[in-house]
Design goal:
By secondary structure, the protein is mainly α. The chain is built from ten helices and seven strands. 57% of the residues lie in helices and 6% in strands.
Length: 284
């Protein structure tokens, strides 16, 4: 039997970065623009504490001479588009569990945690990344018991997608609901780079309670550990050992830490992209 060893953390993260950049550059930016301009679903606007429409002004009773107050002008469509685009990093990567202004956002109910996390799990981007990861594993003949050909690729695709769903649901919904913590990332958005970088990294170990205040982020390590344990149900027995499990746990923790950094600095990157586009436009 082929002696397969799981890829190292650095090698795996390098592929993840290359994957994100490639998807952002080739072909998909147009798709991201279309998604960004769409109206947010009602449950998302409720969670984020924003509204796509202004509430109608109160109507006076019939026969009343009460003067109607002027309505506040609706926000410009461009502002709505910019806000919607922030829900996708690099215009394609789901970013539904990120909060920019923590002072205006209420805590989530357990159903909301499941709905928002599931929305990210079954986003089209996740199906694409699972397919590319399955192709890499197929080329390396990872998990030889799966075989090659279409059947082997299908098994690798299924396990790769299941891994993503397991980890996301455990870390973003199941454990936060049981422990009554908030799975969202609250951007710092101010201060020097080193301070913000350290803050984003610390959110792996620190999270917010539903009742307010910070607490240890048990959902992150234990949620990922639970996902690794669940994966033993569908991976070949030859690949279910403590070493590969610990390696997979470390990889997922590192990916989540990288994800926090992207969530923290994506608004800055987004602003730089928009500024560059405006500078490229010829002046009238």
């Amino acid at each position: 039997m082929t002696d397969w060893r799981p890829p190292t953390v650095s090698k795996y993260l390098l592929r993840l970065l290359i994957l994100a950049v490639c998807i952002s550059i080739i072909g998909l930016p147009g798709l991201g623009a279309d998604l960004g301009s769409a109206t947010l679903p009602p449950f998302v606007t409720m969670v984020l504490g924003v509204s796509d429409q202004q509430s109608p002004a109160a109507q006076p009773p019939n026969g009343s001479n009460t003067q109607t107050l002027p309505q506040t002008p609706p926000p410009k469509p461009a502002d709505q588009n910019e806000k919607a685009k922030d829900d996708r990093m690099f215009y394609v990567m789901p970013n539904f569990l990120t909060v920019e202004n923590e002072a205006k956002v209420p805590s989530l109910r357990w159903k909301q945690k499941f709905v928002i996390t599931a929305r990210g799990c079954f986003d089209p981007y996740e199906f694409v990344t699972a397919g590319i990861l399955a192709g890499i594993r197929q080329a390396e003949n990872a998990y030889p018991a799966f075989g090659q050909g279409a059947a082997g690729y299908g098994r690798r695709y299924g396990t790769a997608f299941a891994d993503q769903v397991d980890a996301n649901m455990m870390v973003g919904a199941v454990f936060p609901s049981v422990l009554r913590t908030d799975p969202r990332y609250f951007q710092l958005g101010r201060g020097k780079f080193a301070h913000r970088f350290g803050y984003a990294l610390s959110r792996i170990f620190v999270t917010r309670k539903d009742s307010g205040g910070d607490t240890f982020n048990f959902s992150e390590p234990f949620g990922n550990a639970s996902a690794i344990a669940i994966s033993t149900l569908y991976y070949p027995s030859a690949d279910r050992d403590l070493s590969s499990g610990l390696n997979g746990w470390g990889i997922q923790m590192a990916i989540d830490a990288l994800g926090n950094e992207l969530k923290e600095f994506w608004p800055d990157i987004h602003h730089a992209i928009i500024k560059h586009r405006h500078s490229d436009q010829p002046s009238n």
